[in-house]
Amino acid sequence: MALLEIRGLVKRFLGVTAVDQVDLAVEPGELVSLIGPNGSGKTTLFNCVTGYLAADGGRVLFRGRDLTNVAPHRVARLGVARTFQQVSVFPRLSALENLLVFLQQHQEEHLLARLLRTRRLRRLEAEAVERARRLLDLVGLTDKADAGAGSLSYGQRKLLAFAAALMPDPDLLLLDEPAAAVNPTMINQLKDHILALHRQGKTVLLVEHNMEVVMDISQRVVVLDHGQKIAEGSPEAIRRDSRVIEAYFGR
Amino acid sequence: MRRAATLVLAAAVVAAPWLVAAVVPRQQRYVLHVLIFTALVAALALSYDLVVGHVGSLSLAHPAFFGVGAYAAAILATRAHWPFLAGLLAAALAAALVAALVGVPLFRLTEHAFAVGTLGLALVAGIVANNWVEVTRGPLCITGIPKPVLGLPGGPMVAITTLPGYYWLALAALAAVALLYRRLTTFRLGRAFHAVRDNEPLAGAAGIDPLRYRMLAFTIGAALAGGVGALYVHYLSVMCPEEMTVALTVNLLVIVFLGGVGTLRGVLVGAILFTALPEILRLAPTWRLVIYGALLLLVVVRSPEGIDSLLRRATGARPAR
Question: What pTM did the predictor assign?
Answer without folding.
Answer: 0.91
